[in-house]
Specification:
The chain has 5 helices and 16 strands. The chain is mainly beta. The chain folds into 2 domains: about 5-140, no CATH class; about 140-325, no CATH class. The longest helix has 15 residues, at about 5-15.
């Protein structure tokens, strides 16, 4: 066997024998607060044990929260090898469909507005449906770069972009038209074939993604989801304060809604920009921490690229950001 074949065989054996991922496996298609979303962390990639692999998507009960008439939470793809497509969460007579695929072991969010039933998550009966497939989704093959950063400068606090509001009316209805964000989260990604699927290299060399989207979920200190929002995908290397001053719809703009994109090679990387509109009890606007304080590793407040500054810790908790193609084509597993 070749060295690559030996590595792939070893990876398959590890996956069959353990609920944990080998150290060499990276999480693709999402990133988030470092204390919560690393490989094997509570909201990172987690494989089910061999004797408990259900090949289905399940609610993570500890993440469910009802606030202000909105039901939110996370699910996990409880499979060791099957991808989940068209995942739908159903509660009472309401439902939410996640537009991105969910890789084995990955979490995905849901948000159901207009919730008037029980506010006690333990009393809510859920049903989750999904199409399970061996087909790996190339559109999720975005490897996360540097740790995501929260920008909380005056110029990065803004109204929700009209384009996001118009394209996602269900997810943005709970953000007032005059609501100014607490800040924005910036996450970097680059298209790259994961070691687990080297065959994706050909597709990534000439990527075609018809509806490129990004989303972000914010959760409190207990891991309960308190917000789910669409996010912007932009060309990498754009200085964010400059981005916020220019029109995204102007000719030659940097927003990416599909790939390929004229005059831009996605293999150079993309950035995801998530507006944070979460004025809940965890907000602590008067608390101030040094930007380099290790006690607050996942919220980096940047006001200068050169000076150490003191800035507010916006709230206890963290976030996850996802990127991929909406409603991707796939091969449904024959059972």
């Amino acid at each position: 066997m070749t060295e690559r074949a030996d590595e792939e065989a070893s990876l398959r054996r590890t996956r069959r024998s353990s609920g944990k991922l080998p150290p060499s496996v990276e999480a693709y298609g999402f990133t988030g607060s470092s204390s919560w979303t690393g490989v094997g962390e509570p909201f990172g990639l987690v494989y089910p044990p061999v004797d408990a692999a259900a090949d289905e998507v399940r609610i993570l009960a500890e993440t469910v929260e009802v606030r202000d008439g909105v039901l939110r939470g996370l699910v996990r793809n409880w499979s060791r090898q099957l991808w989940a497509y068209d995942m739908t969460v159903i509660a009472e007579d309401l439902s939410f469909m996640w537009p991105l695929s969910i890789q084995p072991g990955e979490v995905a969010p849901f948000e159901i507005a207009g919730w008037s039933a029980s506010a006690d998550p333990k009393q809510i009966e859920f049903a989750v449906t999904a199409e399970m497939s061996l087909h790996a989704d190339m559109s999720r093959a975005f490897r996360a770069g540097h740790r995501p950063t929260l920008w909380a400068q005056p110029e990065t606090r803004r109204l929700l972009p009209a384009g996001l509001r118009d394209s996602h009316p269900g997810l943005t209805a709970d953000v007032g038209v005059d609501s100014v964000s607490l800040g924005i989260v910036a996450a970097e990604f680059v298209l790259d074939a994961p070691a687990s699927h080297p065959s994706l290299s050909d597709d990534i060399d000439d990527p075609v993604i018809g509806d490129l989207r990004a989303y972000g979920a914010v959760f409190d200190s207990q891991g309960r989801v308190v917000e789910l929002s669409p996010a912007e995908v932009i060309a990498a290397g754009v200085w964010l304060p400059d981005l916020l001053k220019q029109s995204r719809d102007a000719e030659g703009g940097v927003s990416l809604h599909s790939l390929p994109h004229a005059d831009y090679d996605a293999r150079h990387g993309v950035s995801v920009v998530l507006d944070v509109h979460t004025p809940h009890a965890e907000v602590e606007g008067d608390r101030r921490l040094d930007a380099s304080d290790d006690a607050d590793p996942y919220w980096s407040c940047i006001e200068s690229m050169h000076d150490q500054v003191r800035c507010p810790r916006l709230f206890e908790g963290g976030f996850i950001v996802w990127i991929g193609g909406a409603n991707p084509a796939r091969s449904v597993l024959e059972r």
